[in-house]
Amino acid sequence: MRPKTSLFAQLGRPAEAAEEITLPHDALFAEERSAANPGKTAYFPSAAYEYSKTFDVPESYRTKRVAIEFQGAHRDAMVYLNDAFAGQCPFGYSAFTVPLDDHLRYGEQNTITVEVRAHDDSRWYTGAGLYRESTLIVTELIRIGLDGPRVATPDIDAERAIVEIAVPVDHRGLAAETVTVRTELRDPAGTVIAGTSAPITVRAGTTGIARQRLLVPDPKLWNVDTPHLYSASVRLEQDGAVLDERRTSVGIRRLQLDPVHGLRINGVPTKLRGACIHHDNGLLGAAAFARAEERKIELLKAAGFNAIRSSHNPASSALLDACDRVGMLVMDEAFDIWTESKSNFDYSLSFPEWWERDIEAFVTKNRNHPSVIFYSIGNEIPESGHPLGSEWGRRLAEKIRELDDTRFITNGVNGFVSTLKTLLPMMQQRSAPGGDGGVNDAMGAGDMLNRVNTSTIVTERTAESYALLDAAGMNYGDARYEMDSELFPNRVIIGTETFPPHIDVNWALVRKHANVLGDFTWTGWDYLGEVGIGRNQFLDEPSAFEAPFPWLTAWCGDLDLTGHRRPASYYREIVFGLRTEPYIAVIDPSAVGRATRPGQWAWSESIASWDWAVEAGTDMRAEVYSDAEEVELVINGRSLGTLPAGRDHRFQAVFDLLYEPGTIEAFAVRGGQRAERFALRSSAGDADLSVTVDRDTIRADDGDLAYLDIELRDGAGTLVTDADRTVSVTVEGAALAAVGSGRPDNIERFDQGKHSTYRGRVQAIIRPTGIGPVAVTVSAEGLADRLVHLSVE
Questions:
Q1: Domain 583-681 identical in fold to domain 688-792
Q2: Alpha helices (H) in 431-479, listed in sequence order
Q3: Strand partners of residue 633
Q4: Which residues does the UniProt record annotate as the domain DUF4982 (predicted)?
Q5: What are the φ and ψ backbone dihedral angles of 398, each rounded to 5 degrees?
């Protein structure tokens, strides 16, 4: 059996006192940010850390096998047991296992140490430490291989399905052994519906594969809307004793891909309403708590997405588990770098030697997850425009196919990046007088990216890289959709990364072309680092790609750092055809009338509020999003008229008006008649604290959390968005993991027990420390305290 053990209890640095911690853990997130550090990493510093754990190893372990599994350690992890080197993994996103048997001192205490570091090795905030789950694995000498069992569903029809299970049996004893592999398959209700057993003889020092095929009558198929999960239990038995047991979820589904029908899941054509996401969890940094990953997927699905792209590195197992349960399609991405660097000390230094082991870990993690339908081998890889660079892509793709041929392969190719070394001298020669003579000058020339992507140079240079894929991933390459449907009639296309304000244009292209599978916006959820790339830059302020300190987030997500939906999210929902109710987004009055530089990832300076601390008569601007042919805006019962909206007018109408406290309403006008309605109200009277908890009962598990959304609301329940104040949170019976807001230019820390609201909102995250009742007190000066009771079971 495999006891799950939290491995590390101490964190420190040389010459520093150790700190007690619980995994998962992001050590870097506790450091002080400074303007002296890079904005791409959210102004966090470089750092190195050492984790250690001392544990007892009984004499009985002499006849066992002991290993440690890390699901992620960022970065350049070095593992030592009793001061002797035991293993390493340079890539911060690969799962890896280190055998410990040769280093153990039986009947004594043993100390395991892991060194990790983060140093100018990424284009975003990575975190540092043992930020994903770590497990101590103790087994018999003969066991189920650590990469098994492997599940496939190769044969499905309406009447039955075949579940194929391959079980690696790994033997490190001294003589050949015969064992029995016994498998039970349970349906989503928990009923055993199939089972089989078979003997297998394995020679000492080898691994044998036991293959079993189970018949499932009347199968319940897995899909986004019906994420039915079966479960398989595989036991290794000998002389009536269970030597090892593994359980895995099984999703029965069929994938098809062609340029006529696009992507079909269980025979049904499916368009991908996709969100690119980074790996961090907002107020928790990079720590991959299972509940944080699950909540992320739940909220993205509620916002209208049916697919995520794990840009630009492999997703955590916890996130994939959540996608299986909730019903979310996954494009899991392997690398952001191959052999050409993008940062000074990035993974290109290790890629040529380690890529094959990383791909093996990548596929092993993914292949039992029905949610994973695409493997992406890279993101904006410069080598993809070079013949020998394409050869690297072929190596990656064929290695994946060797390990798993049941899913499709893509690559997020940016035609501009792929041909940059050719185009850059040309752009410098043609740059306008007074420009910077380089990429920034050219990028500011409006339609430059489309002109580059549709050029003959890009067509020719990317042909080989696209040809080795099952689907051509195009980053900001929507200008190619139409032409490639004619130039390459067999090419299937995915918009692997797109600009948020272009979703109406992009989605029309997705709907028009069967061979264009979908759109993945940059991004679905706001993230740490690449600070301010989604902000609006005003002409009366200095221009820069990244925002100055203390900016913290990219600010280009449909959902903010806490999971609150921003106006772009509701606009996208309307474009997708999932919402008929209009939506009002009011421009911050401080931005009305100010000229801006168009930002490729920027949305308007708007929120859904009619609660502003300005004088009556102040100039205001309201955007109304709607799929109706017209919308009408009404203020305090007085109509301000109608304006065209809908598909022909990019799904929005813009009203200029004067501020007048009260109520504004938007009506969708269909066939000349008022239809669906949306309203905003000004706050009235004193604000009060409102606390909403996502769950009032949580598990006594290191990966579980409770989220408290704390808001300032008046007596009628209206959110007070323009009178922020500091909120304090204290917890009894559990730990306060974080308190913070979605503010993108945040100077406050998240580990101080108090934080200012942003637009009337702040969030607290509670982490269990044991079984029992939990009391959370929320307070703010001048307001009545709120007491929330939770329980941990």
A1: yes
A2: 439-443, 448-453, 456-461, 463-467
A3: 666
A4: 618-674
A5: -70, -30
Q: Which CATH superfamily is domain 583-681 in?
A: Immunoglobulins (2.60.40.10)
Q: Give CA separation, 454 vs 186, 484, 494, 597, 644, in Å.
A: 51, 9, 16, 25, 33
Calpha distance 364→361 (Å, rounded)? 5
pLDDT tens per residue across span 249-303: 999 999 999 999 999 999 999 999 999 999 999 999 999 999 999 999 999 999 9
**Burial (CB count within 10 angstroms: exposed 0-12, middle 13-18, buried 19+), residue 7:** buried
What backbone torsions phi and psi does residue 568 show, to the nearest 5 degrees? -60, -30
| Structure tokens belonging to residue 767 | 């982490």
The confidence band for 662, taking pLDDT boundaries of 50, 70 and 90, is very high
- Fold for the domain defined by 688-792: Immunoglobulin-like (2.60.40)
- Domain at 150-250: CATH code: 2.60.40.10
The residues near 398 (Cβ < 8 Å, ≥ 6 apart) are none
Q: How far apart are the first and last CA of the chain?
A: 24
| Homologous superfamily (CATH) for 268-419+455-575 | Glycosidases (3.20.20.80)
Contact 754, 726 (CB under 8 A): yes
- Cα–Cα distance measured from residue 669 to residue 636, given in angstroms and rounded to the nearest whole number: 19
Q: What is the pLDDT of residues 565-582, one digit of tens each?
A: 999 999 999 999 999 999
Which CATH code is given to the segment(s) 10-140? 2.60.120.260
The predicted model scores a pTM of 0.95
Tokens of 6: 């939290």
Residues ≥6 apart with Cβ < 8 Å to 636: 660, 662, 663, 664
| Percent of the chain whose pLDDT exceeds 90 | 91
Every domain of the chain and the residues it spans:
10-140, 150-250, 268-419+455-575, 583-681, 688-792
Assess whether pLDDT exceeds 70 at residue 437: no
Per DSSP, helices labelled H in 101-187 are none
Tens of pLDDT, residue by residue over 494-526, are: 999 999 999 999 999 999 999 999 999 999 999
